[in-house]
Design a protein that fits this description.
A hairpin with a 6-residue loop joins β2 and β3. Helix content is about 40%, strand content about 20%. The protein is of the alpha+beta class. The chain folds into two domains: about 40 residues, Orthogonal Bundle (Arc Repressor Mutant, subunit A), CATH 1.10.10.10; about 80 residues, Lrp/AsnC effector binding domain/regulation of amino acid metabolism (RAM) domain (Alpha-Beta Plaits, 2-Layer Sandwich). The protein is built from five helices and four strands; from the N terminus they run αααβαββαβ. Strands 2-3-1-4 form a four-stranded antiparallel sheet.
Length: about 150
């Protein structure tokens, strides 16, 4: 297990905000030499703490202006039912996140589509077509004041 000291914490915080920062600039911000900083970043990558880097896409510019979180309850609480639901939902482009959760529902989905019409179609033709689904509750996002997913 890698040691998460103040330097590694700073490196992770900065990289989470700007994964394209140059090593020289990163080193300057955390107070390390470029070679020491690079070694630390490589250790964080090799240990799996840093899983990768990605582009943050603007959903509105991609035509995905409608964001909802959807809880899904299953009619059967078996491993087989869960696996079948997960297989059924995996191919859906509308579902950007699928989490198996505890509580009153089995799953929490993050769904992005262009508008309410397309959400209704997804609700009926994708979720409604899965025989394991017994309940669907939709929470439409009005505004996101903080979102650190990257």
């Amino acid at each position: 297990m890698i040691k998460l000291d103040r330097y590694n914490d700073q490196i992770l915080r900065i990289l989470a905000q700007d994964g394209r920062i140059s090593n020289t600039e990163l080193a300057g911000k955390v107070g390390l030499s470029p070679s020491a900083c690079l070694r630390r970043v490589q250790e964080l990558e090799n240990s799996g703490v840093i899983k990768g880097y990605r582009a943050i896409l603007d959903p509105e510019l991609l035509g995905r202006k409608f964001l909802a979180y959807v809880t899904v309850g299953l009619s059967d609480h078996t491993l087989k039912a869960q696996q079948e639901f997960e297989q059924g939902i995996t191919g859906s482009d509308e579902v950007l996140e699928c989490h198996n959760i505890t509580g009153a529902f089995e799953y929490l989905l993050r769904v992005e589509v262009s508008d309410m019409h397309h959400y209704k179609k997804f609700h009926a033709e994708t979720l409604g077509a899965l025989q394991q689904v017994s309940s669907i509750t939709t929470y439409v996002v009005i505004e996101s004041t903080k979102d650190q997913r990257a």
